[in-house]
Design a protein that fits this description.
GO molecular function, one term: magnesium ion binding
Radius of gyration: 19 Å
Distance between the termini: 36 Å
CATH superfamily of the largest domain: Thiamin diphosphate (ThDP)-binding fold, Pyr/PP domains
CATH class of the largest domain: Alpha Beta
Protein name: Transketolase
CATH architecture of the largest domain: 3-Layer(aba) Sandwich
Domain Transketolase-like pyrimidine-binding: 2-168
Shape: globular
Number of domains: 2
CATH topology of the largest domain: Rossmann fold
Organism: Streptomyces buecherae
Pfam families: Transket_pyr, Transketolase_C
Number of strands: 12
Order of helices and strands: HEHEHEHHEHEHEEEHEEHEHEHH
């Protein structure tokens, strides 16, 4: 199976052939995978080199001309380093585009902390008007990419990951999807965390909701699922900073007595690096770690 990043580069190259409004802006990362597309569309595949502020500003400039820019690099260099440009050149200018990240929280541990961005979704969530997609499978990444590329002038962040679920789920770029139903509480699995969540709650009487679009959060489905349980207890399992969506979940449940537990990457600087699997275990996001914390919270 190909990775989300491989699927992204292949599909985006095809989309350039189909839609003259699209342009791709790169900062060296994945540039080798757009060689043929750059030869075919030299004016719409732009590599600015390792200049991430320029990367985002170029995308914003293209958007001002009526283009639909797809801006791509590692998450730490796409959201964190040029955050002011994201805020001003897209948000303040009122332009739209598609930011597509790779790297995620710890997809390339050998790159060290500079190449990890567990806070990217939380940081982008401080800005108004962004749709944030977190696919859990390459097929989902393709569907959400096509949806974002064909959109009008809205602002979309597509967060790709090396971690993937074994099978895709239907995605529509909007709501939460019910995977299973139970009475003891609700567990929301975001993107590539679904397989681990399902393994963790095996035998527990809980509802599992699957999210590939986390902003805007489907508050209606979350509230309905929580209200149907014995106690409106909600566990959020996110592949980035723990608690990123806790406030949004709390607002959805405002008129219900409820509890919310946010699980994800801890708020501590990483100084020891291993494999993706070792990082998942170290963060308690493997099935065993999730099982212990979910069962303890729900009293199961």
């Amino acid at each position: 199976m190909d990775t989300m990043r491989e699927r992204f580069t292949a599909i985006t190259s095809r989309l350039l052939d189909e839609d003259p409004r699209l342009a791709v802006v790169l900062a060296d990362i994945s540039a080798d995978r757009f060689t043929d597309a750059a030869r075919t569309h030299p004016d719409r595949v732009i590599n600015v080199g390792i200049r991430e502020q320029l990367l985002v500003s170029t995308g914003g400039g293209l958007a001002l001309t009526g283009m639909r820019p797809i801006v791509h690099t590692f998450a730490s260099f796409l959201v964190e380093r040029p955050f002011e440009q994201v805020k001003l050149d897209f948000g303040h200018q009122g332009t739209g585009g598609v930011l597509v990240s790779a790297g995620g929280s710890y997809d390339w541990p050998a790159g060290g902390f500079t190449h990890m961005a567990p806070g990217d979704v939380a940081l982008l969530d401080t800005l108004d008007g962004w749709t944030i997609h977190v696919p859990g499978h390459p097929d989902e990444a393709e569907a959400l990419l096509r949806h974002a590329a064909a959109a009008g002038d809205d602002r979309v962040y597509l967060r790709l990951s090396e971690q993937s679920n074994t099978a895709p789920r239907p995605v529509d770029g909007a709501g939460l999807h019910t995977v299973r139903q139970g009475r003891r509480g609700v567990v929301v699995a975001v993107g590539p965390m679904l397989d681990n969540v399902l393994a963790a709650v095996d035998g527990l009487d809980v509802t599992v909701l699957y999210a590939t679009t986390v902003r805007p959060l489907d508050t209606a489905t979350l509230r309905s699922a929580a209200a149907a349980t014995d106690a409106a207890d909600v566990v959020l399992v996110e592949p980035y900073l723990a608690g990123t969506s806790s406030a949004a979940a709390g607002e959805a449940l405002l008129d219900l007595p409820h509890r919310v537990l946010g699980l994800g990457v801890a708020r501590r600087e990483l100084r020891r690096y291993g494999t993706i699997e070792e990082h998942l275990a170290g963060q308690g996001l493997d099935p065993a770690g999730l099982r212990a914390r979910i069962a303890d919270f729900l009293g199961a």
